[in-house]
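Re: iron/sulfur cluster structure - here you go.
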Amino acid sequence: MAVSKTDFVRGLQCEKMLWLDAHEPEHKIIPPEVQARLDAGNEFGDKAMSLFGEFLESTTFRDDGRLDFAAMLAKTKTWLENGENVVCEGAFSWYGNYCAADILKKDGAGYALYEVKNAYAARQEFITDLGFQRLILRKCGVYVTASKLVLRGDEPPTELPLPETENERAEYLEKDGFRYKIVDVTAAAKQAERVASIRIFELGKLKKKETPQPDIAVGEQCLKPYACWYYDYCHKK
Ligand code: SF4
């Protein structure tokens, strides 16, 4: 695989992080609290699949337990050609660059793209993620009518200063006793798509190149927007 959406978001945070993921992942340390957050995010994502009622999910595993990308790509292609109403984890590949879209909902002649995040407010890294997906989907011939975030709509544990504009654009949906907040970020995602189209092949080359390890000094990027899993490795050096 060339660049996945995870690779892309991580590579934008720090190119060395992307390179280490590809060539020396043994240095990675995922703190238990971060793993717990990732697991909670996956659970939230699974729950949100039924947000719009019945859905088809493309996730397929091979006998060895790994994802069967070829089967996922084929299923997604068929379902979109058939005009299915809701497709979850729809898989797309363009020049080996890959993404799975959390939710695609039929919207007129195209599909609205939804990215699910277990968070109370939109963040730039979520938009970056959507921009990458928009690029791959559109290159695969999908007419993307809108780009939206599905966030938590329940009461945050503490008062969070949400941007006023975000609240203005938010709509709330209740499903199975849970409240979701949907934020339309189409304009920002289009901008992010332009960035993705510029950086995608450069990051692909970096990921593939075995040596040398990128010479990047530790800095602010080690904690923002996400605490880096190679923090100990780089800071010890
Ligand atoms: S610790 Fe910092 S320099 Fe090292 S890979 Fe992570 S973000 Fe990059």
